[in-house]
Amino acid sequence: MYRTVIFDLDGTLLDTIGDLAAAGNHVCREYGWPEHSTDAFKPMVGHGMLNLMSQFSPLEARNDAQIAETLRRFNAYYAAHSMDTTKPFPGVPELLTRLKADGVQMAVYSNKADEFTTVLMDKFFPGVFAWVQGKKAGIPTKPDPTGVNGILAALGAERSATLYVGDSATDVRTGHNAGLTVCAVTWGYRPRASLEAASPETLADSVEELEAAIRRNVNLETPSSP
Length: 226
Fold this sequence. Notes:
Shape: globular
CATH superfamily of the largest domain: HAD superfamily/HAD-like
Strand order of the largest sheet: 5-4-1-6-7-8
Mean pLDDT: 95
Number of helices: 10
Strand content: 15-25%
Order of helices and strands: EEHHHHEHEHEHEHEHEH
Oligomer: single chain
Distance between the termini: 24 Å
CATH topology of the largest domain: Rossmann fold
Largest sheet: 6 strands, parallel
CATH architecture of the largest domain: 3-Layer(aba) Sandwich
């Protein structure tokens, strides 16, 4: 069993896309920009908040000054509505409870702003995670491994005993850049084919398959005797 598991948030632990889309479309309405479907927001998320602002903004509104103001308006709305429809993916709370009971050390690392990441984890999974971290000033967004490396150091976690779990190619690259084994989950916001192309060590189509991957540390497996 892996002794430490680092989870992505959006699309992995929580289904947040409805509230993210609502906040983005709120800003679009304020400016008179075209709105987007909830499904259209799925490929936009996961690359950091500034990238999300750029993705849903029209081309003429993607300059630095406008993006900063768009983010301010987005954050003001999202702060009041981040839990309107957000909920854990089915089976996730029960999985986390079992892992914690079995002594697995768990962390969350997200490209979502740190204040929102912390609020959501406190609401839906209080006391579950040993470390919760979103995007902080001075730390590059995923797939840069700086944030993950900091978490490993803070928790005293060994790379060979740590599994990284996420729902996007960005998460796979993040884990690999940090020298970790990766399990990509397919219930999030990316097509399965895009995850396969990123070459995670394991793909999980269900919470049961994710739990099996966590309980099977590939770094500790030995070849069968002939």
